[in-house]
Amino acid sequence: MRAVRRAVGMMWLGLGACPSPVTSGESDAATSSSSTETGAPAETSGSSSSGGTTAAATTPEPAPDAGIASRCGSDSPEALMDCVDPARWAEDVAFMAQSRPPGSIHWQKVQDRCAAALEQAGFAVQRQDYGTGINVIGTREGAAAASEVVLLAAHYDHVSGCPGADDNASGVAGALEVARVLGQARLPRTLMVACWDEEELGLRGSRAFAQTFTGAKLAVAFNFDMIGYASAAEHSQIFPGPLAERFPGLADELTANKGRADFIAVVADASAEPFALELERRAERLGRLTGVMTLTDAEKLDDDAFGVLSMSDHRSFWERGLPALHVFDTGVFRNPAYHCTGGLDTSDTLDHAFATDVLKATTAAVAAAAGL
């Protein structure tokens, strides 16, 4: 999530009076990559300019889980949920969670991994060079309504010097795992999965895409940004007064849950609300509390009201009048290592069971949105 969020959130919410989140784990040692990587990216066989489908370096796949393979199916959203492999997600997070500011060596490696994973999942891959950064966009054409698009995306850049496991290796790895699973299904609508660049610098990558998206109808855009942190400790979740007043039903649920930071949060505009509610339904069938916060057209771009809920890449689509929703763990309201301000944002602090529920629920919701 963007670096300005913490400053804006603190001023808007007066968080000094709120209880501090409890970490789900402590890391005493920095990763070997926590130092800043600078300079232009190294030349790779997977790099390309804008507008073409490129060949990316092959990424070795982990051995398939026999138990998952025996349950997995592709003929319904429910069957696809059983195809999600937490080990694949964890492996990608571990690889990505190093300092990766735009232009750095590891930024290039993560970009290449996005392209390779999407190609392996059966997507046609394009690297969109929009001038200051590069988006990786995979497209799998729909079988019946190819002109209607469902999009799932996550930003792959991060601030310098911070591993960024939750923000946003968790989201990128999640998008790639959902892409792998849905690549097995025959979907009526076209599915696009993207890794956005330069979210931390002002949503540049997603804005570049949204501003040039033409020739098709966007049914809905799903955004992953921080989907891996949770805590079962009581009163570990911050849910500030303005949000509690605007969403009293969710506030009551969180109170009944004793303030535990273990629920999935979804922010949607009115046009994306049905898709958000479908995700909520799927998650709660897994036993995972989920809260949907729907903003009106007047609220969703009002920075003085609930701007803190629109400071990730879903906003780029709202600005164009396109339906979008944001799936996250509430970020700064839960994770003290946000942007490494209260510790290192490393992969060992993440909750794999929580992330798995996010991935399963989103897989089903995206499959349903794509017409399965």
From TrEMBL:
InterPro entries: M28_fam, Peptidase_M28. Keywords: Signal. It comes from the Bacteria. Residues 23-60 have a biased composition (Low complexity). Residues 135-364 form the Peptidase M28 domain. Residues 17-74 are annotated as: Disordered. Residues 1-24 form the signal peptide. It holds the Pfam family Peptidase_M28. GO terms for molecular function: metalloexopeptidase activity. This is M20/M25/M40 family metallo-hydrolase. It comes from Nannocystis pusilla.
